[in-house]
TrEMBL record, chain A:
Domain LUD: 53-223
Highest taxon in the source lineage: Bacteria
Naturally occurring in which organism (per UniProt): Cutibacterium equinum
InterPro entries membership: FTHF_cligase-like_sf (IPR024185), LUD_dom (IPR003741), NagB/RpiA_transferase-like (IPR037171)
Protein name as annotated: Lactate utilization protein C
UniProtKB/TrEMBL annotation, chain B:
Record has Plastid as a keyword: no
Keywords: 4Fe-4S, Electron transport, Iron, Iron-sulfur, Metal-binding, Repeat, Transport
Protein name per Swiss-Prot or TrEMBL: LutB/LldF family L-lactate oxidation iron-sulfur protein
Domain LUD: 96-321
Positions of the 4Fe-4S ferredoxin-type domain: 337-407
InterPro entries linked: 4Fe4S_Fe-S-bd (IPR017896), 4Fe4S_Fe_S_CS (IPR017900), FTHF_cligase-like_sf (IPR024185), Helical_ferredxn (IPR009051), LUD_dom (IPR003741), LutB/LldF (IPR004452), NagB/RpiA_transferase-like (IPR037171)
Organism annotation: Cutibacterium equinum
Cited SUPFAM superfamilies: 4Fe-4S ferredoxins (SSF54862), NagB/RpiA/CoA transferase-like (SSF100950)
Length: 226, 511
């Protein structure tokens, strides 16, 4: 554990500076002092939420397929092969057993993250397969809450390919609805990762290049469960 | 880190260093003020071309994504109000954030200035026995000159954002807050990678081309070995959520996720103004920030973490709340509106002065309009660099229009100019020819407008000039002040007739 402790003098002094700088503010209640005219948690009108989601995710050059629930195991294997993950895939501890069996059945090494794989082992694994928490149609984003079927954060980051399964019923129109859905997870202490396409950069002449440090290929399986 | 990586780098007078030394002087280190620095920058024709291409691209992308968002102005109003709520009750929200961060297992520190923040980071690294740290792009840590401080303490700080890597390996300084290597083109990046990567880790392939995907892949491999061995990471923070004690990082490349996830210890330096009241408020800023910053509907990755999670990510976390002049900004009832800034850089990308001058001329980690309003407030106006910044602007007002949190840039700049003039006056002798020049111009204007006879006398002179030039552009003229001013400008000749004489003539004809 670190020995360094907080300097109480610095804290007191900064708070005193803030209070000196704010003497013009007479209403002590932040909420009535500055009302926020905004309706939180509101989605946007959309004819086809899932269709929009598929289109926006595809805009990020990710691959998106729509399948029936019974076909998910087969679609996962196809996704792994299509992205070039021939040898191995990390599977979170809570991943659907039938999905794991299908991966094994295809001759791909399904590596359970229990005990936790080392950074080097993750680096030497072709892909990761996870479920997800929420999809956002307007921005084409997928939110992970890193519960048991999604695994800890590192496993969806270090391998080069991510095959991600999302149910159509998990897709909402916009960011505000997603924020409300994942809020309980945050209160439970879970981290969140929002994924919008594969890792990308525009740092060289603002030309978008896909794949920097995160998975270079994102393969999304949308399950038509509605 | 192995000791063979310790080497003597260029540009630092033979002192052994762990990381590349920047060639250009940084803020406070002999940097000339904007009006002087800009002359050298304007002569860099490759940089000007790089800048024009890049800012045009990013402006168009932003405009397209904003046009897709029907409630854009409502979002801006909401963001403005939320940030005002924070600014006006900062002590309340900081104390709440501290309480909830601590409850989540985070060590919270407070730093009055940059030096204090740097000292805390170095102390944590030493306690952990870490002689290197990986860094997520953080403007706050550039503000405190953290990398140079850690270097002096024998700790190597590796930048992991691709643009920051280009800047660091290029012995350079960032010139933009979102795309720090905006002033470099692909050929320059190739040269830098080819010559420098081998000195600090995995070399770039000998036959590497200028192709951005190839260059990006070289960076991926070079940095991956650093990610896999790093024990400690340093980040900034886009937002701190007071009610849940969470931090938020918005990024593209995944280097942020690498730093937030793989090392055992994570230290985040965040400006005290980065607090948002609630987790719910995130919805407003996640809709505004990516569209404003990079013209994406959403950036590839957002990370939200609420302290230590068992078995997932760093098991020791620190947050340093940094003042470093922010409370001085807060004390000014108009100037404090600049504390709403969410560092999206849309003001920078639209600024005609920035596009031509580049970011280095501003002598601060904050270039463009936000730099011109923030830097002189954070550092005061005692130094010539900071006194010059409110004048690095044509007052065109484009920045006011694009700002997602509605910062009134031009109002603050005019107030700051006034402050600079007052401070020069109190020094008795104007030390600065621009400020003296503007004071002179204002006196002339005051004389001209005080009496209509004065005004007409000036018009006679102006009409004479118009007749001589007959519609030609005013080119370089052999008058000292005008000559300098006209060097980079084309100005229309004054009309040969004035409105007043035109009016009199037309009225006479009607009678």
């Amino acid at each position: 554990m670190t020995t360094i402790s907080t300097d109480p003098v610095a804290r007191t002094e900064i708070l005193a500076r803030i209070r000196r700088a704010s003497t013009d503010i007479t209403n002590p209640d932040p909420v009535t002092d500055v009302p926020v005219e905004w309706k939180y948690g509101t989605g946007i009108e959309m004819d086809d939420v899932v269709g929009t989601f598929v289109q926006k995710v595809t805009d990020y050059k990710a691959t998106v397929v729509r399948v029936k629930a019974a076909d998910v195991p087969k679609a996962i294997v196809e996704g792994l092969k299509a992205t070039g993950a021939q040898r191995s895939a990390v599977v979170p501890v809570g991943l659907d057993k039938s999905w794991v069996e299908a991966i094994k059945g295809a001759g791909i090494d399904a590596r359970a993250d229990e005990p936790q794989l080392s950074k080097e082992e993750l680096n030497g694994t072709d892909a990761v397969v996870t479920a997800s928490a929420v999809g956002i149609a307007d921005t084409g984003s997928i939110v992970l809450t890193h519960v048991e079927d999604q695994g800890r954060r590192a496993i969806t980051l270090v391998p080069d390919r991510h095959v991600c399964v999302i149910k159509a019923s998990q897709v909402v129109s916009d960011v505000p609805e997603a924020i409300q859905i994942v809020k309980p997870s945050v209160h439970d202490g879970h981290p969140l990762t929002f994924i919008s396409g594969g890792s990308a950069t525009s740092d060289i002449e603002l030309a978008r290049v896909d794949g920097v440090h995160g998975p270079r290929k994102l393969y999304v399986i949308v399950v038509d469960d509605q | 880190m192995s000791t063979e990586l310790r080497r003597v780098t260029y540009g630092n007078h033979g002192v052994a260093r762990l990381t590349p030394a920047p060639d250009k002087p940084g803020p406070y280190m002999g940097m000339p003020k904007f009006s002087k620095a800009v002359k050298d920058e304007l002569n860099l024709s490759v940089q000007r071309k790089n800048m024009r291409n890049a800012t045009t691209t990013i402006r168009n992308k932003r405009a397209l994504r904003v046009s897709e968002s029907p409630d854009w102005d409502d979002l801006r109003d909401a963001a403005e109000a939320i940030k005002n709520r924070v600014g006006r009750h900062l002590d309340h929200y900081l104390v709440e954030a501290e309480k909830n961060l601590t409850a989540n297992g985070v060590h919270v520190h407070w730093a009055r200035d940059g030096e204090e923040a740097n000292r805390i980071v170095a102390q944590i690294a030493k306690d952990k026995g870490a002689d290197e740290v990986v860094k997520i792009k953080s403007i706050t840590s550039q503000e405190t000159d953290l990398n140079e401080y850690l270097e002096e303490q024998g700790i190597a700080a590796w930048e992991t954002d691709l643009a920051e890597l280009i800047v660091q390996l290029g012995h350079d300084r960032p010139s933009h807050i979102v795309v720090p290597a905006i002033h470099r083109n692909r050929a320059e990046v190739r040269e830098i990678f080819l010559h420098e990567m081998k000195n600090y880790g995995r070399p770039a392939p000998e036959d590497i081309s200028e192709n951005p995907p190839e260059l990006t892949n070289a960076a991926r491999l070079h940095l991956r070995e650093k990610f896999l061995r790093a024990k400690m990471a340093v980040s900034g923070g886009n937002f701190v959520l007071a009610d849940t004690g969470s931090l938020v990082i918005v990024e593209s490349e995944g280097n942020g996720r690498m730093c937030l996830t793989l090392p055992d210890t994570l230290v985040s330096i965040v400006g005290i103004e980065k607090v948002l009241p609630t987790f719910d408020d995130l919805e407003v800023f996640l809709k505004l920030l990516p569209r404003s910053a990079t013209g994406e509907r959403m950036n590839p990755y957002n990370s939200v973490w609420s302290g230590v999670t068992d078995g997932d990510g760093p098991q020791e976390q620190h947050v340093i709340f940094l003042d470093n002049g922010r409370t001085d900004v807060l004390a000014d009832t108009l100037g404090r509106e600049a504390l709403r800034c969410i560092r999206c850089a849309s003001c920078i990308n639209i600024c005609p002065v920035y596009e031509r001058a580049g970011g280095h001329a501003y002598g601060s980690v904050y270039p463009g309009p936000i730099g011109a309003v923030l830097t002189p407030q954070l550092r005061g106006v005692d130094h010539p660099v900071d006194r010059g910044l409110p004048y690095a602007c044509s007052l065109c007002g484009a920045c006011n229009e694009v700002c997602p949190v509605k910062i009134p840039f031009t109002d603050i700049l005019i107030k700051l100019r006034n402050k600079v003039v007052e401070s020069e006056k109190s020094d008795k002798i104007p030390q600065d020819y621009e400020i003296a020049g503007e004071m002179g111009l204002m006196k002339t204007a005051s004389w001209a407008f005080s009496d209509y006879k004065h005004f007409e006398a000036i018009q006679v002179g102006s009409r004479g000039m118009g007749r001589v030039l007959r519609g030609k552009k005013v080119g370089p003229v052999p008058v000292p002040v005008a000559q300098r001013w006209l060097k980079y400008r084309d100005v229309d000749a004054p009309p040969s007739d004035t409105f007043r004489t035109w009016w009199e003539k037309n009225r006479e004809e009607k009678r």
